[in-house]
Write a structure and sequence with these properties.
Layout (H helix, E strand, L loop, with lengths): L1 H14 L5 H5 L23 E2 L2 H6 L3 E10 L3 H14 L4 E11 L4 E12 L25
Parallel strand pairs: 1-3
Antiparallel strand pairs: 2-4, 3-4
Length: about 140
Amino acid sequence: MRIVLAGLLFGLLTGCQVILLEDRVGPVVKSTTIAPTKVVAIEGSEAIGFIDQASSQLNGCRQLSRLRLTTSRPFEEAVVELRNRAHILNANMMIPVMIKEKGSYKHPENHLFIVDLVRCRKNTSKESTAINPSSSSPGGLDNG
């Protein structure tokens, strides 16, 4: 019984000794928010396009890497940032694996991009992956 009373007394006396320094000192570190700057395209990154898996195989593209980008920027800026990173990694096309958005279009919470970075031959572009009716190759694909 004495141990229970001693424990209760000890708990009451030690629990009352909380001192809040925030009221006396104020915040130690002032938080500053930095406005995010707009993403600027690197020279040459605007030529990087998207291509589907089948067309990339038909054009003889080789996969360099898989890139995952999570950002809370607007969608257009996120695509520019994705192209910048692909350009830095020496890719000239991207194969979208997954694109997810949370939130609304104007007020995004997060964008998730997962793309395969591929390096294709120089003549591979957005036009060369389209069906070309004047092409003599089977299926109308212009493989260069």
